Fold this sequence. Notes:
The chain is of the alpha+beta class. 33% of the residues lie in helices and 35% in strands.
Amino acid sequence: MEKLVNTTVKDIQHLYELQLDIARDNDFMLYTYEELINNKVNNILMLERFLSSETNVALHFVSKGKIVGYAQASIHKVFKYAHVAKVVVAIQKSFRRKGIATQLLVKLEGECLMRGVRKLELSLVDTNISALMLYNSLGFEIEGIKRGSLKINNNFHNEIIMAKCLSLSRPRS
Ligand SMILES: CC(C)(COP(=O)(O)OP(=O)(O)OC[C@H]1O[C@@H](n2cnc3c(N)ncnc32)[C@H](O)[C@@H]1OP(=O)(O)O)[C@@H](O)C(=O)NCCC(=O)NCCS
């Protein structure tokens, strides 16, 4: 059975294992595999804090009882930025190109909108073509390039900043 669900603290162990799996497979996520595995306790605590905060939205996709993808939005706490959320998404390798990231991001956008978010922001390394195509297909636009901001395997890479304005004309209630 497949379903899209809200992530809670009881999912932390499985989510952490999925993050490890994805970080082992590529260098597109913020934390390296080594950072995740060497700071396991801190990373679990960070996830716990993230999932306990009301200003965060966390969803995951379950297939046959296993978490195979997740999307998260972290809504800014500072008042002038409180309509902006930072987004991340990742899918386990064998479950890609099945529309799972799209489903997660569409639902995440809806949940963000309901909480007063009017702009989604994210960033990616310039070699991450899959992510670039995914975000493009969902209406995200490039807002800028941070040159040489990311160092991956001793090579410097540009970081692409993308965003999607949900509806800047409607004020936060
Ligand atoms: C990027 C990622 C999240 C996409 O997840 P996904 O579930 O495969 O994406 P979807 O199946 O919803 O793809 C939607 C659209 O995005 C585009 N897309 C996704 N992967 C693509 C690829 N490898 N090549 C070209 N286009 C791609 C396509 O337009 C696709 O639509 P289509 O399959 O009908 O052609 C996934 O590849 C992943 O987890 N990568 C590793 C982690 C990562 O990079 N996260 C983002 C960090 S910024």
